[in-house]
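Aim 2, interim progress: modelling of the hydroxy diiron-OXO moiety-bound target.
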Amino acid sequence: MNKTIETAFNDHLNAELFSSYLYLSMANYFAAENLEGMAQWMRIQVEEERIHALKFLDFINERGGRVTLGQIDQPKLKWQNALNVFEEAYAHECMISGKINDLLDVAREQSDHAAAAFLQWFISEQVEEEATALAIVGKLKLVGDHSMGLLMMDQQLAQRVPSAPDPAAQ
Ligand code: OFO
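Predicted structure of the complex, ligand included:
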């Protein structure tokens, strides 16, 4: 495997594991605030991020590279309110999108077409991830300080179910 790609993909594997850890911390915050629906939503996100990390891990292995698991930073533990959590989740997704775009630039510079093709799934996924977080931010802004609205949002987010397995990953 191209060493530049191997290093960049290992770094990104760590970023996806951190995403999972960050959302687990957000889930814990919501559980402590008695917002079980939002906690449930975040727990599903934890699993999605773990799957993202495993996609990178599998790709490195399939290409004959070496997976290097590094230290995962401690995530933030407390937020001001639900809006603050989802604003930070949205900002985090935008940051991850930037990293994916940079990875694609590196893959193209290295003429690694397999890596570039692999990253296309993530380019589309990030559009969805950003849109989902941003839509929740928008609704929570409408809710403002109204407890009833917050409880309704909590019920709505409790409806989230895990995404169907990706057929391309079978
Ligand atoms: Fe949230 O998409 Fe991966 O990190």
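The helical segments are 3-32, 36-62, 82-109, 113-143, 147-157. The domain at 3-160 is CATH 1.20.1260.10 (Ferritin).
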